[in-house]
Amino acid sequence: MTQNKVTVLYVEDNAENRTLVRRVLEAEGYRMIEADSAVQAFQQIKAHHPQLILMDINMPDVDGYTLTSQIKSLPDSRNIPIIAVTANVMRGDRERSLEAGCDGYIQKPIDIDILTQQMERYLTGNKTNV
Fold first, then answer.
1. What is the pLDDT of residues 48-62, one digit of tens each?
2. Could you tell me which of 34, 43, 100 has the C-alpha nearest to residue 66?
3. Is the model's pTM score more than 0.85?
4. Whole-angstrom Cα distance, residue 98 to residue 95?
5. Nearest-angstrom CA–CA distance, 86 and 103
6. Which class is 7-123 in CATH?
7. Which whole-number Å values give the CA distances from 107 to 11, 29, 42, 73, in the listed order?
8. Could you tell me the CA-to-CA distances from 7 to 1, 26, 51, 52 in Å, in that order?
């Protein structure tokens, strides 16, 4: 099931990762906006009201845990599903993401064959663990 015109914000400091995800999402009918910093993420949220946020955890200015907590603390954005996208796969990393307010967790490298399936669980309201 393709979510046409669903806006997804990808917060990621690596341009190559953003390009890859953009290609996958646009091919599936999504609209992707991007941010490479916390400041830019807040600008994009305010300007575009995304329906889903993919959040890199290892960001240079403000880490994804902190940024997720900040986004979830705001009334206008607290209900936007946020999925952590991270190479952090040590014991406790998933739990730390969820404690920060992330609704789900996707490991890097991203499996582009199932990325949109993972996202759709949150877009349709079925928030079973990813």
1. 999 999 999 998 889
2. 100
3. yes
4. 5
5. 14
6. alpha beta
7. 15, 23, 24, 25
8. 15, 10, 6, 7
Domain residue spans of the chain: 7-123
Q: For 29-94, what is the HEC assignment?
A: CCEEEEECCHHHHHHHHHHHCCCEEEEECCCCCCCHHHHHHHHHCCCCCCCCCEEEEECCCCCCHH
Note the residue count of the chain: 130
> 30-47: per-residue pLDDT in tens?
999 999 999 999 999 999
